[in-house]
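*** Protein under study ***
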Amino acid sequence: MKEIQSNCTPKNAQESTAQTRPGGRTARTRRAVLDAAARLLAEASPADITCAQIAALAGVNETTIYRKWGTKEALFTDALLTLSAEPLVMIDTGSLRTDLIQVVSGVADFLRTPAGFSLAYMGAAGEDETTGELRKTFWADRFAKAKVIFERAVARGEINSAKHATLAYEALIGTLHFRILAQRSTLEDDIAEQLVDLILCGVFGVAHRS
């Protein structure tokens, strides 16, 4: 993937000092911009998309993007984090294994899309302050949700403690990100089952089951 360059440097520094209007209109404008960015990311590389294109598709002025996000990278990260969070529903399936397979499958499905790859890439590479804050908030939310899954398993009597919930989630989701970013390889259809069984059973348990 080409190096991502920002196209969102304001032409007039005074424009960046304008205040965002509070209320429903602001929320609708933000959503329109995020949806526009997500649509474009599904069709092209982040490096090939400009803020002018996003603004035109969203029906807003470019200065709106400058004020709210400052950089193209921050806007894309916000759009993709929002997009990836919405379809991830962590429902109670009745067992720890099927709960985890459901979550890992959902993440894998998203990472198989162009937008999912872009999120993984920018989430790992983005160094600006806004992207850093978005990344911190996103992962804190995911780890909190993962802990709930393990706490449910404790309540069912499946496991004794949820203390390793974060580490387990990192191992599961981190493997998916490693596959697509470091190896540039595809994710198998049954990758969720493979990973969950490996985490829950361990290497010896999986080998014996095979």
Residues 129-156 form the longest helix (28 residues). The radius of gyration is 20 Å.
